[in-house]
Amino acid sequence: MTTVAEDNFGVFRTRNTSQPVRRFTLSNSAGTEAQVINYGARLTSLKVRGRSGQPVDVVLGEDTYDGYLAATSRFFGCTVGRVANRIAGGTFTLSGQTYQLTQNRPPLHLHGGERGFDRQLWGSHVAGDSVTFTYISPDGEEGYPGQLTTHVTYQLTEDSQLVIRYQAMTDRPTPVNLSNHSFWNLAGHGAGRDALLRHQVTINADTVLEVDDQCLVTGRRLPVADSAFDFRLPRPLGEAMAAAPGGGFDHNFCLERPEDGAVGAAAAVHSADSGIAMEVFTDQPGLQFYTGNFLPADGAPGKAGATYSQQGAFCMETQKFPDAVNRPEFPSTIVNPGEVYQHTCIYKFSVRDVL
User: Which residues participate in catalysis according to the annotation?
Assistant: First the structure.
């Protein structure tokens, strides 16, 4: 059965208070171990046994809380919100009122702003094989209307599924689009770009959203057939990146899902180096596939002395479509009082020879 242990990871300081940052280690009998902290409700480590039988940490991160403070712009492992991804101009109109959000990537609003959910200390509660983080975002935070109460639950199952469940409730209409921003390399968190290029990738999508030179969606859905974006069958990532505009991906794939509310297969990734495979399941309509294009070109310091190279990791962020609050043709991100925002994402790990 899965066990949960708790320890201190640092001290969260504000002008008036100091509070402990808590780390939770979830371990199952298969040797899979996930570590999460209540700063940013983030995943800091995921160890799974590879082909050799030795544990491989497949999540990029930092050794200390201070490391995360210095690396906030990279969003390692965090919960992003209120709204993941980009909002054009950092502005939207809701019920006849225009709201101006923080433009933390001028002229865009990205991943919740300067002090989004990734930079908050969340409450925490352990129940059985899971830990739930809770954050109450006040009315007006980063420009968003309404008080939003958010719960993020991490569960590790005996068959090595990391299940992430989100719930959110508001007292005023507000956009909500939560996601997890873990950076993965299934050959090991420090294995780098060469190992990443050898990954095989499948994404269950027939269309992808077109983006402009700011990675902002234009509103057009493009067929993936006969393009760099066609991952409907397993494909070497290096081959696809060589054909991609700009040499990498930061795009929302429109998933082929079961009926609304059902969790279905979104993607799968396999490392021939380690033998580790990761399958992604979700009830959301979009998957942002990102290949670490904005990691520093000269490398970034990481856990255990590793240097994280540009394009040395990938993200698969399940979510609704980017800038949906400004595009009524996209699935809505608006949550009203009395409604409950819900979102499930599952990362399932195994060892195999091929995808």
Answer: 181, 317
